[in-house]
Amino acid sequence: MLFSAASPPRILTLVLLTALSVLSLNMFLPSLSHMAEDFQADYALVNLSIAGYLAVTAALQMILGPLSDRYGRRPVLLAALAIFALASLGCALTTDIRIFLGLRFLQGVVISGWAVSQTAIRDMVPAREAASLMGYVAMAMSVAPMLGPMFGGVLDEVFGWRSSFLVFAGMGAALFVLSWVDLGETNKRPSETFAQQFRTYPELIRSRRFWGYATCMAFSTGAFYAFLSGVPLVAQAVLELPPAMLGFYMGTITGGFVLGSFLSGRYAKRHALTTMMITGRLVACAGLMAGLILFAAGIVTPLTLFGATVFVGIGNGLTMPSSNAGALSVRPELAGSASGLSGALIFGTGALLTTITGAILTEENGLYALVGMMLFCSTVGLVAALVVLRIDRREVGDPR
To answer: Are 176 and 221 members of one domain?
Structure first.
């Protein structure tokens, strides 16, 4: 443990850090009802471990990003992993729902695994190469949300719900050790003081290019959040799918994301960031529009619904790495702050769109409302990508 890394991290380390930040959100979802029984609390209160956690992670990104610009990626990540491991252990041991929720929110610091991984990649390589690497990282870590709930369900059945949080604690400790020996500091130009750092913020905040990249990311991801929020209702009311089949079909959008991320990893080095972003948005919009045409023709089957939505996954896989790399490239010395600000926008927009989708969907309009909402989000993302392209053509000093 005395040895500490001096060289940049391996991609595997960044993949694992990103995967843990995803697993911490969804691995214990199958246990929510058991947790409510154990704590003798309302299900709605226990459900705050999801909704509240999302809100906390959005806020934390606004803090962790600037801290990594000031003090470096390595110390911020190591501190976050230590806090996450201890909070996870506390969650596993407590018998008080209020203490559990407090510690659960504290677990949110693990979002730094995602934010620092993206920022470290941008620290190490130019924007287009960063987009390529981010594509491969996204492809590898996308396995986590597919397998996480399944693994958590098995743990709950065999050992009880607390075992998931013990596993979180073990994962946090293991990744702390791995990061200690493998994740050298990548921020070679940390700001000397927060005052100096804050003086440069207006340039980031006023950048139309940054907001174009961030808006594209937020609404691209928003289409996915709308899908998660609305498809269970549509699948039951319109398609009459049993839960097991629904779980299988819901995985197709993640499978599409894997494919899109692979294509990003392969082609992002060769093409401009805006080319990859616009291509991804066109793929998503085209798939959803084709679905609406088929529905209007009376062809409503699981294949037409999930065949349309899988293009959102493919499009997001093409769009997200390049838009992320672009947002972090507007002011490279503030890459951590840009990551935190764009991440907060993504989570905040996702929460808003999830709420809106849940409010407008009914059994009668569910099919068209769901796909329409996803198409709206994908179209806004396309417009944002086109705005960035226009800015790039008009302004001097394209950061790509």
So the answer is: no
